[in-house]
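Quarterly update, task 2.4: cytidine-5'-diphosphate-bound model.
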Amino acid sequence: MKKIIITIDGYSSCGKSTLAKKIAKDLNYVFVDSGAMYRAVTHYFLKNHLDWTIPEQVVDAINHISLKFEYNAQNGTSDILLNGENVEAAIREMIINENVSDVAAIKEVRDFTVAEQQKNAIEKGIVMDGRDIGTVVFPNAELKIFLTASPEARVERRYKQLLAQGKQVTREEVRLNNEKRDYIDTHREISPLRKAADAIEIDNTHLTTLEQEKLVMDMVFEKLKN
Ligand code: CDP
Protein backbone atom coordinates (compact mmCIF):
# COMPACT_ATOMS: atom_id res chain seq x y z
CA MET A 1 0.00 0.00 0.00
CA LYS A 2 1.09 3.58 -0.72
CA LYS A 3 2.79 5.32 2.21
CA ILE A 4 2.59 9.01 2.97
CA ILE A 5 4.10 11.68 5.22
CA ILE A 6 1.77 13.17 7.85
CA THR A 7 2.73 16.34 9.69
CA ILE A 8 1.10 17.60 12.89
CA ASP A 9 2.01 21.11 13.97
CA GLY A 10 0.56 23.39 16.61
CA TYR A 11 0.92 25.31 19.84
CA SER A 12 2.34 24.03 23.13
CA SER A 13 0.49 21.25 24.91
CA CYS A 14 -2.37 20.84 22.45
CA GLY A 15 -1.96 17.07 22.15
CA LYS A 16 0.16 16.79 19.02
CA SER A 17 2.26 13.89 20.25
CA THR A 18 -0.75 12.02 21.61
CA LEU A 19 -2.43 12.25 18.22
CA ALA A 20 0.74 11.52 16.23
CA LYS A 21 1.48 8.37 18.26
CA LYS A 22 -2.02 7.00 17.71
CA ILE A 23 -1.98 7.66 13.98
CA ALA A 24 1.49 6.11 13.63
CA LYS A 25 0.34 3.04 15.57
CA ASP A 26 -2.85 2.65 13.50
CA LEU A 27 -0.90 2.83 10.25
CA ASN A 28 2.24 1.06 11.46
CA TYR A 29 4.22 4.19 10.52
CA VAL A 30 7.27 5.68 12.20
CA PHE A 31 6.47 8.39 14.76
CA VAL A 32 8.98 11.20 15.28
CA ASP A 33 8.60 13.70 18.11
CA SER A 34 10.64 16.62 16.76
CA GLY A 35 10.12 18.56 19.99
CA ALA A 36 12.03 15.81 21.82
CA MET A 37 15.06 16.68 19.68
CA TYR A 38 14.99 20.36 20.71
CA ARG A 39 14.45 19.27 24.29
CA ALA A 40 17.45 16.89 24.14
CA VAL A 41 19.70 19.61 22.70
CA THR A 42 18.57 21.93 25.52
CA HIS A 43 19.34 19.19 28.04
CA TYR A 44 22.85 18.88 26.60
CA PHE A 45 23.50 22.61 27.02
CA LEU A 46 22.22 22.67 30.59
CA LYS A 47 23.98 19.48 31.65
CA ASN A 48 27.31 20.66 30.29
CA HIS A 49 26.88 24.23 31.57
CA LEU A 50 27.16 25.63 28.05
CA ASP A 51 25.90 29.07 27.08
CA TRP A 52 23.71 29.01 23.96
CA THR A 53 24.06 32.76 23.54
CA ILE A 54 27.75 32.22 22.63
CA PRO A 55 27.96 31.06 18.97
CA GLU A 56 31.21 29.06 19.44
CA GLN A 57 29.65 27.07 22.26
CA VAL A 58 26.60 26.32 20.11
CA VAL A 59 28.72 25.04 17.24
CA ASP A 60 30.87 23.00 19.59
CA ALA A 61 27.81 21.47 21.27
CA ILE A 62 26.20 20.50 17.98
CA ASN A 63 29.39 18.82 16.85
CA HIS A 64 29.22 16.64 19.94
CA ILE A 65 25.54 15.72 19.82
CA SER A 66 24.08 12.57 18.35
CA LEU A 67 20.32 12.02 18.54
CA LYS A 68 18.56 8.71 17.98
CA PHE A 69 15.18 7.23 18.76
CA GLU A 70 14.88 3.81 20.37
CA TYR A 71 11.74 1.68 20.48
CA ASN A 72 10.30 1.37 23.99
CA ALA A 73 8.45 -1.95 24.22
CA GLN A 74 6.80 -0.92 27.51
CA ASN A 75 4.69 1.86 26.03
CA GLY A 76 4.97 1.03 22.34
CA THR A 77 6.53 4.37 21.34
CA SER A 78 10.11 5.54 21.11
CA ASP A 79 12.46 7.21 23.53
CA ILE A 80 15.11 9.72 22.56
CA LEU A 81 18.78 8.91 23.04
CA LEU A 82 21.28 11.74 23.46
CA ASN A 83 24.76 10.40 22.70
CA GLY A 84 23.47 6.92 23.50
CA GLU A 85 21.84 7.88 26.80
CA ASN A 86 18.07 7.61 27.23
CA VAL A 87 17.00 11.15 28.24
CA GLU A 88 13.26 10.72 27.69
CA ALA A 89 12.43 11.50 31.35
CA ALA A 90 14.98 14.29 31.79
CA ILE A 91 13.72 16.28 28.79
CA ARG A 92 10.19 16.53 30.23
CA GLU A 93 11.36 18.46 33.34
CA MET A 94 10.19 22.07 33.85
CA ILE A 95 13.77 23.34 33.52
CA ILE A 96 13.70 22.14 29.90
CA ASN A 97 10.25 23.69 29.32
CA GLU A 98 11.68 26.97 30.59
CA ASN A 99 14.59 27.05 28.15
CA VAL A 100 13.75 24.94 25.10
CA SER A 101 12.14 27.68 23.00
CA ASP A 102 15.21 29.91 23.34
CA VAL A 103 17.43 27.05 22.18
CA ALA A 104 15.02 26.13 19.38
CA ALA A 105 15.21 29.67 17.99
CA ILE A 106 18.95 29.33 17.21
CA LYS A 107 19.72 28.88 13.50
CA GLU A 108 22.56 26.37 13.96
CA VAL A 109 20.39 24.25 16.22
CA ARG A 110 17.53 24.23 13.70
CA ASP A 111 19.84 23.46 10.77
CA PHE A 112 21.07 20.41 12.67
CA THR A 113 17.69 19.11 13.87
CA VAL A 114 15.86 19.74 10.58
CA ALA A 115 18.54 17.80 8.67
CA GLU A 116 18.16 14.92 11.15
CA GLN A 117 14.37 15.03 10.80
CA GLN A 118 14.52 14.95 7.02
CA LYS A 119 16.67 11.80 7.12
CA ASN A 120 13.58 9.99 8.43
CA ALA A 121 11.76 10.58 5.17
CA ILE A 122 14.05 8.57 2.95
CA GLU A 123 11.31 6.00 3.29
CA LYS A 124 7.79 7.34 3.68
CA GLY A 125 5.32 6.11 6.26
CA ILE A 126 6.08 8.74 8.85
CA VAL A 127 4.10 10.87 11.30
CA MET A 128 6.07 13.80 12.70
CA ASP A 129 4.83 16.43 15.11
CA GLY A 130 6.29 19.84 15.92
CA ARG A 131 6.09 23.48 14.94
CA ASP A 132 7.55 23.73 11.43
CA ILE A 133 7.09 20.22 10.07
CA GLY A 134 4.47 21.10 7.47
CA THR A 135 6.08 24.44 6.58
CA VAL A 136 9.82 23.70 6.54
CA VAL A 137 10.75 20.08 7.25
CA PHE A 138 8.28 18.39 4.89
CA PRO A 139 6.63 21.12 2.78
CA ASN A 140 5.48 18.41 0.32
CA ALA A 141 3.85 16.17 2.93
CA GLU A 142 0.64 14.57 1.69
CA LEU A 143 -1.36 15.33 4.85
CA LYS A 144 -0.76 18.32 7.11
CA ILE A 145 -2.68 18.89 10.32
CA PHE A 146 -2.60 22.09 12.35
CA LEU A 147 -3.87 21.25 15.82
CA THR A 148 -5.31 23.85 18.17
CA ALA A 149 -7.14 23.89 21.49
CA SER A 150 -8.21 26.64 23.85
CA PRO A 151 -5.45 27.97 26.13
CA GLU A 152 -7.42 26.72 29.17
CA ALA A 153 -7.70 23.17 27.80
CA ARG A 154 -4.01 23.12 26.98
CA VAL A 155 -3.02 24.25 30.49
CA GLU A 156 -5.30 21.67 32.07
CA ARG A 157 -3.96 18.81 29.94
CA ARG A 158 -0.30 19.62 30.51
CA TYR A 159 -0.89 20.27 34.22
CA LYS A 160 -2.53 16.85 34.65
CA GLN A 161 0.20 15.17 32.63
CA LEU A 162 2.93 16.70 34.80
CA LEU A 163 1.07 15.82 38.02
CA ALA A 164 0.72 12.23 36.82
CA GLN A 165 4.49 12.19 36.38
CA GLY A 166 4.86 13.29 40.01
CA LYS A 167 6.09 16.80 39.18
CA GLN A 168 5.57 19.69 41.60
CA VAL A 169 3.98 22.32 39.43
CA THR A 170 1.09 24.77 39.58
CA ARG A 171 -1.46 25.57 36.87
CA GLU A 172 -0.14 29.12 36.83
CA GLU A 173 3.41 27.92 36.08
CA VAL A 174 2.11 25.77 33.24
CA ARG A 175 0.03 28.63 31.87
CA LEU A 176 2.98 31.04 31.93
CA ASN A 177 5.26 28.48 30.31
CA ASN A 178 2.80 27.68 27.51
CA GLU A 179 2.36 31.41 26.84
CA LYS A 180 6.08 32.08 26.86
CA ARG A 181 6.87 29.20 24.49
CA ASP A 182 4.02 30.08 22.12
CA TYR A 183 5.23 33.68 22.02
CA ILE A 184 8.85 32.76 21.26
CA ASP A 185 7.84 30.00 18.80
CA THR A 186 5.55 32.30 16.79
CA HIS A 187 7.84 35.33 16.85
CA ARG A 188 11.26 33.81 16.10
CA GLU A 189 13.01 34.78 12.89
CA ILE A 190 13.72 31.27 11.62
CA SER A 191 10.85 28.87 10.91
CA PRO A 192 8.28 30.50 13.19
CA LEU A 193 5.27 28.43 14.14
CA ARG A 194 2.51 29.07 11.66
CA LYS A 195 -0.13 27.07 9.86
CA ALA A 196 0.97 25.86 6.43
CA ALA A 197 -1.31 27.17 3.68
CA ASP A 198 -2.39 23.62 2.84
CA ALA A 199 -2.76 22.38 6.43
CA ILE A 200 -6.12 21.32 7.83
CA GLU A 201 -6.91 22.96 11.15
CA ILE A 202 -8.46 20.87 13.90
CA ASP A 203 -9.59 22.44 17.16
CA ASN A 204 -9.62 19.55 19.63
CA THR A 205 -10.83 21.50 22.69
CA HIS A 206 -14.04 19.47 22.79
CA LEU A 207 -12.83 16.29 21.13
CA THR A 208 -11.80 13.12 22.92
CA THR A 209 -8.51 11.54 21.87
CA LEU A 210 -10.54 8.82 20.14
CA GLU A 211 -12.64 11.35 18.23
CA GLN A 212 -9.60 13.27 16.98
CA GLU A 213 -7.89 10.00 16.02
CA LYS A 214 -10.93 8.94 13.99
CA LEU A 215 -11.17 12.33 12.32
CA VAL A 216 -7.57 12.21 11.18
CA MET A 217 -7.70 8.54 10.17
CA ASP A 218 -10.65 9.38 7.90
CA MET A 219 -8.48 12.07 6.29
CA VAL A 220 -5.64 9.58 5.88
CA PHE A 221 -7.89 7.02 4.16
CA GLU A 222 -9.17 9.76 1.89
CA LYS A 223 -5.58 10.62 0.92
CA LEU A 224 -4.63 6.99 0.40
CA LYS A 225 -7.61 6.48 -1.90
CA ASN A 226 -6.55 9.30 -4.22
O1 CDP B 1 4.76 18.90 23.64
P1 CDP B 1 4.88 20.40 23.66
O2 CDP B 1 3.82 21.04 22.84
O3 CDP B 1 4.96 20.96 25.03
O4 CDP B 1 6.27 20.81 23.01
P2 CDP B 1 7.31 19.97 22.17
O5 CDP B 1 6.68 19.49 20.90
O6 CDP B 1 7.96 18.98 23.03
O7 CDP B 1 8.38 21.11 21.76
C1 CDP B 1 9.16 21.77 22.72
C2 CDP B 1 9.68 23.07 22.13
O8 CDP B 1 10.58 22.75 21.04
C3 CDP B 1 8.66 24.00 21.51
O9 CDP B 1 8.08 24.89 22.45
C4 CDP B 1 9.46 24.74 20.47
O10 CDP B 1 10.16 25.82 21.04
C5 CDP B 1 10.48 23.71 20.02
N1 CDP B 1 10.13 23.04 18.75
C6 CDP B 1 10.41 23.71 17.57
O11 CDP B 1 10.89 24.83 17.59
N2 CDP B 1 10.20 23.09 16.38
C7 CDP B 1 9.68 21.87 16.33
N3 CDP B 1 9.51 21.28 15.14
C8 CDP B 1 9.34 21.18 17.52
C9 CDP B 1 9.56 21.82 18.72
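Highlight for this quarter: Residues 12-13, 16-17, 34-35, 38-39, 100-101, 104, 130-133, 181, 185 surround cytidine-5'-diphosphate (CB under 6 Å).
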